[in-house]
Specification:
alpha/beta; five-stranded parallel β-sheet
Length: about 450
């Protein structure tokens, strides 16, 4: 057998599976480590430094949606983009596989697994990770070690976006705290990255976190870190997101979903620009530039007592409201053309543009999912196309979206009782489909997952 290379980290709550893999994988790889929960994943990543993470998608036996695996896939790719992630699930869900791949997963393995297939996938992932490591540590002369974001900001020609672009040129070089609001899919995360890219902190990567998707029990540990022995399995010190963003930009997405009792702890860290790790006593200063985003109406939440007024004013030094796509229709076709070019190259299709009926269809559609929905629509059309021009027949739009969106309340500024009723109703109407319910409610999948846990649904 050839010399064994590669380090594999396995995250699975099933002791039998961990034991089986501890026997199988050392026959093919130099080092194999297993942990039962993602609670210690970040520390294991820092200490073990794996080439590949084999990540289970469900750690809560009562909720088998794969959301935990998707969340941790995103987190892993943010923290260690050269580490490859292979998702591990007992449910052969193709849509889930596609979503995982879109978030950066290398591949998808279904339980019960075939040993040879598993080893083959992990070996391929290991080879890719090690090539990336070699490229980053031995860059070509004159080449940067890291490439810029693959998703550039598209400004377009609408008056509202021109105003925002002018504002960004003024505030980006400063350390002003920015609050970005807008509907789902309007590109709040892309705008945050654009601000960071033109700031004086752009030499360090922006640290992004979906604040609304962090469970309450992990909130302080994730944001502020913890010391060794602070809780079960805290075997070493861990730096939280604030410390990881020291000298850079911290992007807190979905900030409107943070529970009220945790907002005080966040406010204290922002005000003092220092944190105390869970279980620690020493205040650690942090030098961050803060950008927050939400799709919720924070003014209404403040009036209802569901969001702290002092926190609202602290994060709202500069407020940028991204308009929905239906309010910037002159940008729809140029955006679609950009996506068409991207996916035509990716899928090797000889496409050059749209015929006029197709362009008119795109301009007149409501786009309740905004840019994200448009992107997905164009990707699907490119995949299914057969000619060199996309026609109205190639573009498959759900004409019931506008009426469904209008008749289904979204989770904005509403009472908890109403929120629980709306979430329950959406889950019933979609037959428990997380993706469909999240789209219906106008929230992200992790946010809906957090709501389901909150109300015990």
């Amino acid at each position: 057998m050839a010399s064994k290379i590669g380090k594999i980290l396995i995250v699975d709550d099933n002791a039998g599976i961990r034991k089986a893999l501890e026997i199988l994988l050392p026959l093919y790889f130099a080092e194999v480590k297993t942990i039962p929960s993602p609670a210690t994943l970040i520390r294991a990543l820092e200490q073990f430094r794996p080439d590949v993470v084999l990540l289970d998608m469900n750690f809560n036996t009562s909720i088998n949606t794969g959301n935990e695996g998707l969340y941790w896939t995103s987190e892993l790719k943010k923290m260690a983009p050269d580490v490859e992630v292979v998702l591990f699930t007992a449910y052969a869900d193709i849509q889930l596989a596609v979503e995982g791949m879109k978030r950066g997963a290398f591949d998808f393995i279904v339980k019960p697994w075939d040993n040879s297939k598993l080893v083959e996938v992990l070996s391929s992932a290991r080879d890719k990770a090690r090539k990336a490591l070699h490229r980053d540590t031995h860059p070509k002369s004159g080449s940067p070690a890291a490439s810029p974001s693959a998703t550039p900001m598209f400004w377009g020609n609408s008056p509202s976006m021109k105003v925002i672009q002018k504002t960004i040129t003024k505030i980006a070089p400063t350390d002003a705290t920015v609050l970005i609001t807008g509907e789902n899919g309007t590109g709040k995360d892309v705008l945050a990255q654009e601000i960071h890219a033109h700031s004086l902190r752009s030499d360090r990567p922006m640290v992004a976190v979906d604040a609304g998707a962090i469970t309450e029990t992990l909130f302080e540990s994730e944001l502020f870190g913890h010391v060794k022995g602070a809780f079960t399995d805290a075997h070493a010190d861990h730096a939280g997101k604030f410390e990881q963003a020291d000298g850079s930009t911290l992007f807190l997405d979905e900030i409107g979903n943070i529970p009220l009792h945790l907002q005080a702890k966040l406010l204290r860290a922002i005000q003092n620009r220092s944190i105390v790790r869970v279980g620690g006593t020493e205040a650690k200063p942090v030098n961050i530039r803060l950008i927050c985003a939400t799709n919720m109406d924070l003014d209404s939440l403040v009036r209802e007592g569901r969001f702290r007024e002092d926190l609202y004013y602290r994060i709202n030094t500069v407020h940028i409201a991204l308009p929905p796509l239906r309010e910037r229709r002159e940008d729809i076709v140029p955006l679609a053309q950009m996506f068409l070019s991207r996916y035509a190259e990716k899928y090797h299709r000889p496409l050059t543009g749209f015929d006029e009926p197709a362009a008119e269809m795109l301009r007149n559609y409501r786009w309740s999912g905004n840019i994200r929905e448009l992107l997905n629509c164009i990707e699907k059309a490119v995949i299914l196309s057969e000619g060199t021009i996309l026609t109205s027949k190639d573009i498959q739009l759900d004409q019931s979206t506008a009426s469904r969106t209008a008749s289904t309340p979204t989770i904005k500024a509403i009472s908890e009782a109403d929120e629980e009723r709306i979430v329950r109703d959406a889950m019933t109407r979609t037959g428990g489909n997380i993706s469909a319910a999240a789209k219906m409610l106008g929230v992200s999948r992790p946010t809906l997952y957090a709501k389901l846990k909150k109300y015990g649904l």
